């Protein structure tokens, strides 16, 4: 437990620092949106390409990881639809609960995976992202279509997935690795410096986006989604790993990703497609804060059952 807390402490500390400096108005509200674009379109893709081009990607059991992710997402969808059936809430609220229960924070996941498992954690995380992001986007678009009756634009959603810089970076990094091309030293030296900026700035940005006002006004929906995302999902992934995943280290990265809080990008989708954006903001904030308490416990106890 102490080793996991030591590894995760800087991750959560940066989240708190990001929130504090945003509250103080430093360096100004105009800073964060451009910073998020820089992270999403340049820094994180560079990190993934750099790490994956050097990592032992061939050692990652891609089929096992993909199967585990797919089983988790479809089982989670059935659970959330069951919650809506037996404890119905407003359709717009359910779309936010669904996103809260299903999405994962890539920034926190990569930072935690790198801190706990090094380059192996990054390599496994990249495979998880490559499978999870496209499937999650399609599932979320389907849920919005069914529950808000708005045209969610399946073709545009598919194109957005194909053009997702994180997905593209994962495939580029894996190609450079497996092909033996690698990164030229001139590119690698610059990519290494940019990669060093990516995780700290991303975690500060996530912390800056926390909305405590929305959390105080939220009701039981935050509790439902948080229990499913932070407790039920890790239990499901533990069961899946015991059945299908051979490597304990790979299983631990999968459990880590299953226990992540939901993604800040869920707020944008809720606002665009007729969801409850205020509730979504509360869910993002509540889960991020709760994950600071729950993730160390999950990552300490669950590996004992692998």
TrEMBL record:
<keyword id="KW-1133">Transmembrane helix</keyword>
<feature type="transmembrane region" description="Helical">
    <location>
        <begin position="38"/>
        <end position="55"/>
    </location>
</feature>
<feature type="transmembrane region" description="Helical">
    <location>
        <begin position="122"/>
        <end position="147"/>
    </location>
</feature>
<keyword id="KW-0813">Transport</keyword>
<keyword id="KW-0812">Transmembrane</keyword>
<dbReference type="GO" id="GO:0005886">
    <property type="term" value="C:plasma membrane"/>
</dbReference>
<keyword id="KW-0472">Membrane</keyword>
<feature type="transmembrane region" description="Helical">
    <location>
        <begin position="277"/>
        <end position="305"/>
    </location>
</feature>
<feature type="transmembrane region" description="Helical">
    <location>
        <begin position="154"/>
        <end position="176"/>
    </location>
</feature>
<dbReference type="InterPro" id="IPR004776">
    <property type="entry name" value="Mem_transp_PIN-like"/>
</dbReference>
<feature type="transmembrane region" description="Helical">
    <location>
        <begin position="222"/>
        <end position="245"/>
    </location>
</feature>
<feature type="transmembrane region" description="Helical">
    <location>
        <begin position="251"/>
        <end position="270"/>
    </location>
</feature>
<dbReference type="InterPro" id="IPR038770">
    <property type="entry name" value="Na+/solute_symporter_sf"/>
</dbReference>
<dbReference type="Pfam" id="PF03547">
    <property type="entry name" value="Mem_trans"/>
</dbReference>
<dbReference type="GO" id="GO:0055085">
    <property type="term" value="P:transmembrane transport"/>
</dbReference>
<feature type="transmembrane region" description="Helical">
    <location>
        <begin position="182"/>
        <end position="210"/>
    </location>
</feature>
<comment type="similarity">
    <text>Belongs to the auxin efflux carrier (TC 2.A.69) family.</text>
</comment>
<feature type="transmembrane region" description="Helical">
    <location>
        <begin position="62"/>
        <end position="83"/>
    </location>
</feature>
<keyword id="KW-1003">Cell membrane</keyword>
<protein>
    <recommendedName>
        <fullName>Transporter</fullName>
    </recommendedName>
</protein>
